[in-house]
Design a protein that fits this description.
- The complex is a heterodimer of chains A (196) and B (597).
- By secondary structure, chain A is of the alpha+beta class.
- Helices cover 37% and strands 19% of the residues of chain A.
- Chain A has a single domain, classed as L-fuculose-1-phosphate Aldolase.
- In chain A, strands 3-2-1-4-8-7-6-5 form an eight-stranded mixed β-sheet, with helices on both faces.
- In chain A, helix 5 links the parallel strand 6 and strand 7.
- Helix content of chain B is 40%, strand content 13%.
- The chains are: A alpha+beta (196), B alpha+beta (597).
- At the A-B interface, loops of A face helix 7, helix 8 and helix 9 of B.
Chain lengths: 196, 597
Amino acid sequence: MLKDFQKLGRDLFLSGLNSSHSGNLSVRYGDRIVITRRGSMLGHLEERDLIETGLAKNDSKIILASTEIGVHRAIYKGTSALAVVHAHPVHAIALSLLEDQIIPVDSEGAYLLHKIPVIGAEHTIGSQELEKSLPGLLSKYKIVVVRGHGSFAVGQMLEEAYQWTSSLEQVCRIICLTRTLQGEIKDQRSAKFKDW
Amino acid sequence: MSLYGWFGKALRVNLTTGNIKEEAIEEKLLEEWLGGRGLGTHMVNQEVPASCDPLGPANKLVFVTGPLTGSSFPGSGRFSVSAKSPLTGTIFDSNAGGIWGVRLKRCGFDMLMLEGAATTPVILSIRDGVAILEEAGELWGKDVIETTHAITKKLGKDVSVACIGVAGENQVKFAAIMNDGHRALGRGGLGAVMGAKRLKAVVVSGNKKVEMADPDKMDLIVYEADKWIKANPITSKGLPEFGTPVLVNLFNEMGVFPTCNFQGSQFANAGKISGETIAETIYSGRKGCYRCPVQCTRMVKIGASTMAGPEYESLWALGPECGIDDLEVIAEANHLCNRLGLDTISTGVTIGCAMELEERKLLKTGLKFGDAAGILQAIEQIANREGVGELLAEGSRRMAEDCGFARYSMQVKGLELPAYDPRGMQGMGLGFATSNRGGCHLRAYMVGPEALGVPKMVDRFSTGGKAGLTITQQNINAAVDSLIICRFINLAVSEEYFARALSAATGINYQPQDLHRIGERIWNLERLYNLQAGVDSSFDTLPPRLLEEPIAEGPSLGRTVELKPMLAEYYRFRGWDAAGIPTPEKLQELKLGEYSC
């Protein structure tokens, strides 16, 4: 398990989806959850950085767990996910400040993600508000962006949730680039996903 | 000129003459030393001769609130007491929560100076700014709970009581002053100083409002700070749900949970006494201090009695340190210490030392590791100075030295060590050795960086960089102890918020860097006092066991504290000479030239 966390944590960092100490990963094992340590560096994870605690029940390990443990737990309780990736992809965050949803304009993004909801909350870090709102959305969508904060993606394994995160950022980069070109988009096929 | 955050007033009570007078506190002093530990350190330096007998009338007890005491800032309902310690011979401060400090401040005083000594037991009552000394009468000889109940029954629930128990009356060297029933100004024997002054209790109540310079700004800062506290799993989940005993399993698994007078570093039965076990067995409710969102106090039920449960350090000292794994006995022992007014860490570690001396046949104490009944009896004997208690009441250093085996006393500068084996936490070792009040975890609080990842996780086995980190932690914590904010709030809220809150309260612009500088001045002033009191660099060390005997098993296997290189670096970084004396240049830089020894 450590190798999976290390591989994906490193990739998330190297591809700019997280800054040095941001983001967190978790997997669910029955009624247990393994989550990255609060303040750990995803690009350099060690054994001590993986914290196992209860899915519903706290124990002493809770004091080492990521600040987003409450959101991860809520996602597991409200969805069939077995892995969660939380990242801070910069283009996605930038777009989230302008949009209520992100509609991919590229074929692969549209094929994989269709539409990415953007939600706002007064408190976006360790947020009890997000604990309530995210599970419902993540049972319908693969990934959701919290306005101005970052993305939460779900999967049956870490790699899957990582893929949605990577795809999201790719989608958002293309949208941002397209907007800077200021031309008319010739292919509007992806617009159909607006009501997805 | 009107002050914000402070009242600029002190009350001075001479217990020898009975004279009580109000005094103005210079605004400059408040700005420079803030309150709490800082102001207390300044006052002790100014008024208590370093050579004085800590239990004589020349010693003074300085009760101080902080500029945030009574404000809405989380964890700010605290006060501090400073004096020369009878246990360590050093300058000493201790702070406590509850609501006593807020009520003292609402009397309109930032500081209460108690000097001299009464000839017969007395009580000091300060109600709405009016102070009187009264005969203690039948309260002398009563325990802390009885005393507190008797006073609140007579005066009403809007008064708070800080008092001593039988241990303080008998001048046990590690007697505590207890406030609001079970809150303790523990460690260095401030209760003995109060007992020597024949002052049974200080009763306070008041209604004066503490004015903030910028209440709107304070509201915003508090709103933001509360947000961080709610978001952080330590302050929003771990401490509220399990209290400080949440640390038992964590430190046991790290192999730094000392057992049987630091002979072992892991406790086989830790699961029987952990925070999780308390929550499932004897837990009966939560309580907390004034304006605290964390509410970490555990109330526990033993038989028909409900009592404040043991904190992490108390649980360890009265449990694994003495080889005891019976949770109910530990809770009873903790309650007994609270009633009698004893510091739980020093009580447990002194008993643990006596157990090892008995085991090694070096001293006949009749105490054996794992003897649950024996520990309860020993606590009573210590408080009453009866039988073997007479010896133990002097603390582990004097007890072990008297029988010629000082190496078995697990203390620094006379203060018994708390629940962390520094062989598996090098920075903690340096923090213990250099602490100005002796073996204390709270001065540097290396629990943060070496165990909890606050502000960042560092390699606990490495000595590299630990001198600088320890100094930074010691400095900022000295300032935080002057504000006075609970250490746990600092686990979720950064010092930037403290500086902002201080500015909003006082109207004076403080930056985080100012707090570091204030802390550094406090640290150096404490050092100067200790040097004058004869506590020099030869005391900046650890018990031989921690330097020479490697940990025998577990995740910290084979470790000792590599103190020497860290200490040399520490002195250099502090701007002290090789003998640990602040250089004239450093004192000049800190504008402490007038205090030079």
